[in-house]
Amino acid sequence: METFTIKDIARELNLSTSTVSRALRGSYEINPETKRLVMECAERLNYRPNPIALSLKGSASRAIGVIVPQIANYFFSQAINGIEAIAYNRGYHVIIFQSQESYEREVANVQQSMSRKVDGLLISLSSETSDVAHLQDVQDKGVPIVLFDRVSSQLNVTKVVADNFGGAFAATEHLIQSGRRRIAHLTIQPWLSITQERLAGYRAALEKYGLEFDENLIRYGTFGPDEVGPMVQELMHLDSPPDAFFTASDRLAVGCLTALRQQHLTIPDDVSIIGFTNLNVADLMAPSLSTVVQPAQEIGQVAAERLIDQIERKHRALPIETVKIPTELIARDSTRLSTEPTEHNEVYTTRKSTTL
């Protein structure tokens, strides 16, 4: 394959090589339209910077560390795709670690990242992480950090998240508008940011429609494959059992669906289910799963952009921000009213992205 250089891009667009170089680095000095043209041309010519050569120009390693709870998780695999796409185009290596939802492994991952002298760190917290002192130590050493998806208010760093509140509100409202009144919520550890935000959206939707928030309908757990069944069984044996489930992830929704079938309940006639993530097989399930879409790849791209900007502008003050990416609700058969036709598939955008 022919190798193209910055000079080729400059010649193609009739720009100076210095302008092309700054555009590829995402420099604030270059206007967005020029950046777009340069990036499109670089992609068309299959231009790829050489991280090793770039690292020889200074003391930077041209590598970023990425720590996720689990690579096999569909959301995180898509987020990594977004991170790598940005990093590759801007001349950075990506070193990926997974904590396997363990606080101890997360701490070890951070230590390993520092030993490899990464220029910055992207991290989504494990389900066991409530103490972020290990990340504060990294920040105190001057290494840029960007948190994504699962974040902590204890750290004064840029955070890139989905609109969890808006997505949860939309999911709960959809169930209420479908005639459901006893909506159970299956979620994960209560100290996680995504748990708190989705629970808040769920409660706000109940309040809007004058429905009581019932603590008995909330269950906290992990992503363990065998724990959803007992939680669902316990809920369905309440004196007033739920007529719908809103789960904080599609993986929990799949477990919920299995448990309800084992109790010979029909979805959605007896009980409705809606999840959160949009697994790549959600529309292939029987019934197809209603869900809130987390824009995983976009979250990864934005997080990588913010981190690399901080790395390359570390001598200029950058605002610490929380960036919220909009979610979408896709209504499929698992929340379909019995009077509605099959193949029901509607998409709702919850809100515009915001920066706080």
Automatic annotation (TrEMBL):
GO molecular-function term, one example from the UniProt record = DNA-binding transcription factor activity
Pfam families linked to this entry: LacI, Peripla_BP_3
Domain HTH lacI-type residue range list: 4-58
What top-level branch of life does the organism fall under?
Bacteria
Checking Gene3D superfamilies in the record gives:
3.40.50.2300, lambda repressor-like DNA-binding domains
Cited CDD domains: HTH_LacI, PBP1_LacI_sugar_binding-like
Q: Which InterPro entries match?
A: HTH_LacI, LacI/GalR-like_sensor, Lambda_DNA-bd_dom_sf, Peripla_BP_I
Q: Where is the composition biased (Basic and acidic residues)?
A: 335-346
Q: Where is the composition biased (Polar residues)?
A: 347-356
State what protein this is by name.
Answer: LacI family DNA-binding transcriptional regulator
